[in-house]
Amino acid sequence: MRQAVRPLATGRARILFAAALLCMGAVSAPAEETDDLLELSLEDLMDIEVTSVSKRAESLSDAAAAITVITGDEIRRFGHTSIPEALRMVPGLHVAHVDANKWAVTSRGFNGRFANKLLVLIDGRSVYTPAFSGTYWEMQDVMLEDVDRIEVIRGPGGTMWGANAVNGVVNIITRSAERTQGTLVSVAGGNHEYAITSTRFGGQVGRAGAARCARTCRSTWPRSTSTTTTCAASSLARPSSTTSSSFRRPPWCRPR
Fold first, then answer.
1. Three-state helix/strand/coil letters over the chain
2. Longest CA pairwise span in the chain (Å)
3. 38-175 carries CATH number 2.170.130.10
């Protein structure tokens, strides 16, 4: 017996197909700026630069720690839509989806919504909340197109980083504002995350500075919408130094 296709399902399918085409264009745009990992030799892979182990630049092979590096190219290739989802690639890291937009991430077990034994950094700056010394992952909604790499250290790091680094360190390193000039629009959709829209604009500030501002809006199932605004600035004299800040509007805070 043939069943008629509902117009609503057909319309949603068209919207998702259009969003997929836009995402393909957004992903393929910076392809010339990223290195193809398949073309790198074993020596080149071992020479990946990390900074979270000793707070200075060193090669991955020389780092005296169990460290995993997730590059921005890998995040785009695997189709991850959030930072916690990308962390599922790290062996030994426990990542759980609590509900529509909340995550629990930790290392060495004892995972939970209020786990506070993992230090989380964005560009070398701690983002833990004073409420329970942990991290609200839904509030650290960094635009994935701006992520350069994520360095994850499994094991104690209190000697170098101090409090919270009991079971590990996660350092989210973003691209400098100088490398994110112009306008970028990214759209994605699915059956769980109905719509993810991200916009970013970057420009030069004077003769020795650059800045960018990004805004990400997520609509998930059940009906929950959150918006995060992230701004970053860097100096052209020190392109590796980036200062960023973010503001998130929770789902229950909506204009009337």
1. CCCCCCHHHHHHHHHHHHHHHHHHHHHHHHHHHCCCHHHCCHHHHHCCEECCCCCCCEEHHHCCCCEEEEEHHHHHHHCCCCHHHHHCCCCCEEEEECCCCCEEEEECCCCCCCCCCCEEEECCEECCCCCCCCCCHHHCCCCHHHEEEEEEEECCCHHHHCCCCCCEEEEEEECCHHHCCEEEEEEECCCCEEEEEEEEEEEEECCCEEEEEEEEEEEECCCEEEEEEEEEEEECCCCCCEEEEEEEECCCCCCC
2. 70
3. yes
Reported residue count of the chain is 256
Average pLDDT along the chain: 75
The CA distance from 21 to 40, in Å, is: 29
Residue with tokens 């939970």: 112
Q: Are 175 and 147 in contact (CB under 8 A)?
A: yes
Q: Is 124 left (phi over 0), alpha (psi -120 to 50) or beta?
A: left
pTM equals 0.71
Q: What is the mean pLDDT of residues 103-132?
A: 87
Lowest mean pLDDT across 33-42, 93-102, 151-160 = 33-42
Asked whether 228 and 250 are in contact (CB, 8 A), the reply is no
For 111, residues 6+ apart whose C-beta sits below 8 A from its C-beta are 94, 96, 104, 105
